[in-house]
């Protein structure tokens, strides 16, 4: 795990180089803008936390190299949480008592909900996080929080829209883990399937940590869905599900949502990964596109593959910086309400290729995404659809 | 025993604090507790509150496991019952927080009694496993009784308020948590100066002998379960006022193991042990975090091994204390005290 | 009622029950010989699976080498655990040792996370993946083969346990430690070997469980279901572990299939409560009489 070491080295090198070119761009008298973070660097969500951490670091670096936020330097203050709510709250308290924090990155849905009243009370911060929970997509209830992408319901919506286009009236199965994360989009999925004229004839919840999925596969064998959407997993039990379904001769297409879409995780599925599809709001590290200077920059900063969590952290930071930029430009004080207004003012924002189309904030989220499919020959997720904007 | 403190009568022997020096220390401690929120930052305030909540729950478990000899791995689930009770009352009824906490304790102790019912027929390992079953079943109820508990997404509740003043920050909620913790601790300490408390100890030492002496086993075992879960329920209620979001994942089985570890490390069958154990076990992760901060300049990967090291230290402490110091930190503390009291003589 | 579906679920239940029985056997053996309920059984099982992954994926050894090596290494670790932390606890109350094993479980989880990381992993495939059909009924190949392997190991083990000299020594120790001592049986040696053997059985079970559902550091929860198995069967009954293993497997699978995944654990633990209330010492366990 010398990854941190490498990161540190490379970051310093880039900083030096960029610093020479840009020169003393940021005025020293302008106040720093602090981005605090409860980051799950260890524990069950560490695979994502490490990526998020790197993504935020790089985005902060790039922002500062380009003169900061209207001259204000962006400072990132992370703290490890091990993906535990109480540790996360502790980190929040620690960071906010030591710094004047205006932007924050939270690590879980439960944390976002726990800290929301405190955000409202202090009225100083705008927060994003690792959670895409549909519940948070409510500007009235959560005025100081936003989702850096589509909510889980929106993700499933994008998949269903894709299915409806591919095969109208298709039979769709929905398999989710029996956790808050897994149950999140179930109701929304049923509703949008109905609206799109799809037949959602199979909804299965699996016990957390359950090993044997053969009974679930038996149900699937009877329902014979054309598509199955997995939600609430990172890896297990998706591969086993697909293996068994294939051995029964089912022609079902399998799909996942954001957190099961990391290229290296899908690669771990082995033979059955080929053809696995899913929705992802961002481009992948290796995506080559015209007019994607940000992706080139990321690749020049890090020469090995970066996870989808990296892109998530990177994009979250871009959005927060942009919100802060709009606020400063408008000459307003940096506080929760103004930052949120600044965020909502983001319209047709060019992310430099992190997302392939210009993005706009709608409500508390950025409901855009694209369907990808795994190509075993290339060992890469490749785009299977154009960018889909949900209204 | 301190030199020059002859115990002249039984009352004197059973007194909680037997010397003026001890009383002076208690006054100093009380003063410190009163001043603390004014001088501590938000982070220290947060840690202090968390420690106090854990002290209440650990003391409860100590009454059951340390003093009565009934091992329970259901403490976190009982806390959950208390937390949900408080949240439901606060959201729907808006009753005063003191009443809510009492009801939370009552609800938890009712559940505790039901779980304790098999304790007459089974004991030891079997009872411990029955309490695991209780936590699994309670977790299921929390997660699936959606109309009441909000299902997997849980409940979000308003803060406690006194005379229209809302207690939001750790340093404000402190004024609920601290006095209640102190009262609960004195209650526990005094419990073992009464017939009930001594009956518990008799059951722990040899339940059949206790029965021969005329102690009704079922009644006292259930009473112990009730008192212990009352503590858990109140601790859970305080937890709810502190975090204000309760989900089924807030009270995992791991948390019950944490409380068990706290009384093992602190010292079973000692009120002081429960306190020391709760403080120590809550602070260990923070201390490790600090060490990571110190180490990271020379060893940049330190943060990556932080979480596993924490788990290993947690398990290692349980093993270490059980093998080398079964009476826990409380015994170490007593040894240190004895050394100074008897100085210049040797023990 | 779809009877084919019903019987397929039953088959899957029996299949997963075989693995419960195998792990339950390990738990019962330790209890019989040393009167210790090993709460770390799930973690030892996980450790075995990770060691196997280390040999097969990490060092790229062939299966015929990786499996025995993983089992041996885990067995060795069992011996070390016994020597280091269980032996000093001899003579302490059962509850103390019970709690020591809880601590042990936590240490093992931490070790695995340090060595192999916290991410979920998959094991190298070593079982054929063509489905098995019994009559019309489908059985997942892995579950089927895992069941067959578990059954063979269990059978072999029972034979050895009855006939081999060491097995007799173990049974003698289980029956009466003092008497075994006076007959010249090396009781501490028996204790060590029981820990080694049970760790080896758990490692085998871990490899099978892991190859079905993948492995992760919190795979130790599997141990909780195994705990239910041995309590239901009776802590000191080998036969009880076998029958209860299959029973729990079937009940869990039916609950999962007809009620939903969230009911699996609930069903198992309700069975546990029922047994504790009706027959506290399990279906086949010995009722111990307490003497003053």
UniProtKB/TrEMBL annotation, chain A:
Domain of life of the native organism: Bacteria
InterPro entries, A to Z: Leu-bd, Peripla_BP_I
CDD domains: PBP1_ABC_ligand_binding-like
Keyword DNA damage applies: no
Range of residues in the leader sequence: 1-27
Keywords: Signal
Keyword S-adenosyl-L-methionine: no
One Pfam short name: Peripla_BP_6
Limits of the Leucine-binding protein domain: 33-365
Xref: PANTHER family: BLR6548 PROTEIN (PTHR47235)
Family: Belongs to the leucine-binding protein family.
Protein name per Swiss-Prot or TrEMBL: Amino acid ABC transporter substrate-binding protein
Lineage summary: Bacteria, Pseudomonadati, Pseudomonadota, Alphaproteobacteria, Rhodospirillales
From TrEMBL, chain B:
Signal peptide interval: none
TM annotation in the entry: 21-39, 45-64, 71-91, 97-117, 124-145, 173-192, 222-242, 254-281, 302-324
Coiled-coil spans in chain: none
One Pfam family cited in the UniProt record for this chain: BPD_transp_2
Entry annotated with the keyword Phosphoprotein: no
UniProt GO molecular function: branched-chain amino acid transmembrane transporter activity
UniProt-annotated location(s): Cell membrane
Tree of life domain: Bacteria
Membrane topology: Multi-pass membrane protein
A GO CC annotation given for this chain: plasma membrane
Main location: membrane
Keywords recorded for this protein, A-Z: Cell membrane, Membrane, Transmembrane, Transmembrane helix
Protein's UniProt name: Branched-chain amino acid ABC transporter permease
Species this chain originates from: Terasakiella brassicae
Encoding gene, per UniProt annotation: livM
TrEMBL record, chain C:
Major subcellular location class: membrane
InterPro entries per UniProt: ABC_transp_permease, BCAA_transport_permease
Biological process terms in GO annotation: amino acid transport
GO molecular function, one term: transmembrane transporter activity
GO cellular component: plasma membrane
Cellular location(s): Cell membrane
Keyword vocabulary terms for this entry: Amino-acid transport, Cell membrane, Membrane, Transmembrane, Transmembrane helix, Transport
Transmembrane segments: 6-29, 36-55, 61-81, 93-118, 143-161, 190-215, 221-251, 263-282
Pfam families from the UniProt entry: BPD_transp_2 (PF02653)
Membrane topology: Multi-pass membrane protein
UniProt similarity note: Belongs to the binding-protein-dependent transport system permease family. LivHM subfamily.
Family annotation (PANTHER family): ABC TRANSPORTER PERMEASE PROTEIN, BRANCHED-CHAIN AMINO ACID TRANSPORT SYSTEM PERMEASE PROTEIN LIVH
Protein name: Branched-chain amino acid ABC transporter permease
Organism: Terasakiella brassicae
Gene: livH
């Amino acid at each position: 795990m010398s990854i941190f070491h490498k990161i540190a080295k490379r970051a310093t090198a880039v900083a030096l180089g960029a610093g020479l070119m840009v020169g003393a761009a940021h005025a020293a008298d302008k106040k720093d803008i602090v981005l605090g973070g409860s980051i799950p660097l260890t524990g069950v969500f560490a695979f994502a936390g490490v990526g998020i951490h790197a993504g935020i670091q790089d985005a902060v670096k790039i922002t500062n190299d380009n003169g900061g936020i209207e001259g204000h330097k962006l400072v990132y203050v992370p703290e490890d949480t091990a993906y535990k709510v109480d540790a996360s709250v502790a980190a929040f308290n620690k960071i906010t008592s030591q710094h004047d924090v205006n932007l924050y990155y939270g690590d879980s849905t439960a944390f976002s909900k726990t800290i929301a009243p405190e955000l409202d009370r202090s009225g100083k911060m705008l927060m994003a996080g690792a959670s895409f929970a549909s519940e948070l997509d409510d500007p009235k209830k959560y005025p100081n929080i936003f989702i850096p992408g589509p909510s889980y319901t929106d993700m499933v919506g994008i998949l269903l829209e894709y299915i409806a286009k591919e095969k109208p009236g298709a039979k769709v199965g929905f398999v989710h883990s029996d956790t808050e994360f897994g149950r999140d989009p179930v109701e929304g999925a049923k509703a949008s399937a109905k609206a799109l004229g799809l037949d959602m004839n199979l909804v299965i919840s699996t016990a957390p940590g359950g090993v044997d999925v053969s009974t679930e596969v038996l149900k699937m064998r009877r329902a014979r869905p054309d598509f199955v959407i997995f939600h609430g997993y990172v890896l297990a039990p998706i591969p086993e599900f697909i293996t068994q379904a294939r051995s029964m001769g089912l022609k079902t297409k399998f799909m996942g949502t954001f957190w099961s879409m990391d290229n290296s995780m899908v690669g771990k599925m082995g033979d059955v990964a080929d053809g696995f599809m899913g929705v992802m709001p961002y481009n992948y590290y290796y995506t080559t596109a015209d007019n994607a200077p940000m992706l080139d920059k990321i690749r020049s900063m890090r020469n090995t593959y970066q996870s989808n969590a990296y892109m998530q952290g990177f994009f979250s930071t871009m959005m927060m910086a942009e919100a802060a930029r709009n606020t400063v430009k408008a000459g307003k004080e940096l506080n929760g309400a103004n930052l949120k207004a600044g965020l909502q003012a983001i319209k047709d924002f060019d992310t430099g290729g992190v997302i392939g189309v210009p993005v706009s904030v709608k409500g508390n989220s950025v409901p855009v995404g694209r369907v990808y499919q795994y190509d075993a020959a290339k060992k890469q997720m490749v785009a299977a659809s154009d960018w889909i904007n949900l209204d | 025993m301190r030199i020059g403190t002859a115990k002249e009568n039984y009352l004197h022997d059973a007194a909680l604090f037997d010397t003026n020096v001890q009383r002076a220390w208690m006054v100093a401690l009380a003063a410190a507790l009163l001043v603390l929120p004014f001088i501590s930052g938000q982070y220290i305030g947060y840690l202090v509150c968390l420690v106090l909540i854990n002290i209440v729950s650990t003391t409860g478990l100590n009454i059951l496991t340390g003093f009565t000899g009934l091992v329970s791995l259901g403490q976190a689930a009982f806390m959950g019952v208390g937390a949900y009770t408080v949240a439901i009352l606060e959201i729907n009824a808006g009753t005063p927080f003191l009443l809510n906490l009492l009801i939370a304790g009552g609800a938890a102790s009712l559940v505790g009694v039901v779980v304790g019912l098999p304790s007459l027929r089974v004991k030891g390992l079997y009872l411990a496993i029955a309490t695991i079953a209780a936590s699994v079943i309670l977790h299921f109820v929390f997660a699936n009784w959606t109309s009441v508990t909000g299902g997997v997404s849980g409940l979000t509740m308003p803060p406690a308020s006194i005379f229209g003043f809302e207690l939001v920050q750790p340093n404000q909620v402190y004024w609920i948590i601290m006095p209640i913790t102190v009262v609960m601790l004195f209650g526990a300490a005094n419990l073992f100066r009464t017939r009930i408390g001594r009956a518990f100890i008799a059951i722990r030492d040899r339940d059949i002998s206790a029965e021969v002496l005329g102690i009704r086993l079922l009644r006292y075992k259930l009473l112990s379960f009730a008192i212990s879960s009352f503590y858990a329920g109140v601790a859970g209620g305080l937890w709810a006022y502190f975090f204000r979001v309760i989900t089924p994942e807030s009270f995992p089985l791991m948390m019950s193991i944490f409380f068990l570890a706290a009384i093992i490390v602190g010292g079973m069958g000692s009120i002081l042990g429960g306190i020391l154990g709760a403080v120590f076990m809550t602070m260990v992760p923070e201390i490790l975090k600090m060490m990571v901060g110190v180490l990271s300049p020379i060893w940049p990967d330190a943060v990556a091994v932080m979480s596993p090291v924490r788990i290993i230290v947690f398990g290692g402490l349980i093993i270490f204390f059980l093998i080398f110091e079964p009476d826990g930190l409380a015994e170490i503390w007593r040894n240190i005290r004895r050394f100074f009291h008897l100085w210049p003589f040797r023990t | 009622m779809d009877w084919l579906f019903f019987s397929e679920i039953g088959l899957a239940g029996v299949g997963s029950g075989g693995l419960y029985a195998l792990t339950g056997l390990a738990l019962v053996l330790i209890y019989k010989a040393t009167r210790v309920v090993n709460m770390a059984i799930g973690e030892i099982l996980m450790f075995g699976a990770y060691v196997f992954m280390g040999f097969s994926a990490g060092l790229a050894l062939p299966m015929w080498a990786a499996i025995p090596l993983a089992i041996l290494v885990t067995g060795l670790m069992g011996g070390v655990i016994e020597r280091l932390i269980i032996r000093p606890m001899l003579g302490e109350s059962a509850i103390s040792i019970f709690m020591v094993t809880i601590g042990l479980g936590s240490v093992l989880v931490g070790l695995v996370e340090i060595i192999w990381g916290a991410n979920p992993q998959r094991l190298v495939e070593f079982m054929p993946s063509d489905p098995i059909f019994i009559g019309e009924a489908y059985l997942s190949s892995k579950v089927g083969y895992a069941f067959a392997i578990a059954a063979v190991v269990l059978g072999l083990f029972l034979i050895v346990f009855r006939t081999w000299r060491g097995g007799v020594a173990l049974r003698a120790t289980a029956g009466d430690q003092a008497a075994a001592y006076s007959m010249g049986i090396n009781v501490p040696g028996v204790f060590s070997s029981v820990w080694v053997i049970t760790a080896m059985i758990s490692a085998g079970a871990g490899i099978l469980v892991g190859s079905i559902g993948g492995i992760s550091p919190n795979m130790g929860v599997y141990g909780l279901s195994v705990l239910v198995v041995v309590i239901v069967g009776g802590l000191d009954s080998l036969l009880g572990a076998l029958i209860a293993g299959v029973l729990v497997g079937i009940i869990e699978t039916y609950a999962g299939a007809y009620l939903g995944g969230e009911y699996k654990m609930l069903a198992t633990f309700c069975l546990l409560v029922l047994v504790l209330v009706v027959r506290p010492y399990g279906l086949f366990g010995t009722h111990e009489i307490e003497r003053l």
